[in-house]
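Input for the complex:
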Amino acid sequence: MSYILLLILASLFCVFYLRHRVAPANKKRLTRSQENANLVKVLLELDADALADLFKLYRDQFGESAARYARNTYRKWKSGDVRPNKQTFQRLLINLPRVMNFGLKCEVLRELREAYCPRGEYDVTVSVDDWKSTLTPLVEEIVERATTAELPQSLQRRLTWLAEDDVTAANALLAESQARESRNAMTLLEKEFSNIEGLLDNAPRNTRVSHVLKLPLGSINVQIKRGSEDG
Amino acid sequence: MDDENDELVPQKQSLFPLTADDIVDNALQSLDEQQAREVTKKAADEVVRIAVEKRKGEYRSDRAQDEMRNLINNANLLDEKVGDYKINSTFETATGTTTVEIKKSKTNTTLIILGAVLILLLLTLFFLLVKW
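Predicted:
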């Protein structure tokens, strides 16, 4: 009898141990339907003009009634209140890209790159005197990231249209465009730091300033101190 | 002998796999005329878009500068007239978001000074008692 009890206790312990070890791995893995819902959400981040083009194409391909349902439900898909079904996913991300014009395909690809390419996130502290020497290499790193960034293999396997020649050209175009945007940010920062310097020079002593530099494939959280002359 | 040497020398073949540039070049060469025209048009659109975004950014930056000036004026006024205050402001700028926090707390400072004096007094009293 005691052996049986011991056996039950041992098996209970094993089950408990295994569940606790396996649970975090399971939590991280998304189901196919969650992955689809996330992809639809990313697609719906398109700006207003591109979204209008998308729904027009949706109507042309799948009819007025399907388009009406999509137009009425897209906010719920976007917020996550309603999870799009497999058919919606396939229509939006498998079938439509095959008939999209190059411009719209580029916009969809831009959203996918921003959501799925690895991003650079940094936290730094700079002073108004030395910000450039600290931020320049980080921005360059993000620029490099933009030019070499690739969508995850798992995504490329699912959305096979990503391997087509025109999408490869679109990817190169967007990489160059995102790199330029990031370099432009460095030019614009000159004026912004001049504004911040003015603010710190004239504001009361207990003033703290921080700036989040947002770039297409990364962001830098900057804590800004007064210049060294001010102590 | 010559035949053996021929086999060892690679015939204009790189040992490395295709580079990203090669892939893009291949893709561009594979596009038909219509697709090539669309790529060229989109590239021109992107140049314009980036220029427009830059201009919009400069405008946001100018507006943020005005708002910062107002904030400094208000903070300096408060600094003269009020003992305790805290201001949190966020500005949308050309490159992101700037957050400014200004605070003054006389009550806390006074309490800290009082606390420090009290601790010093107690320590002095303690050492005096220990000596006696």
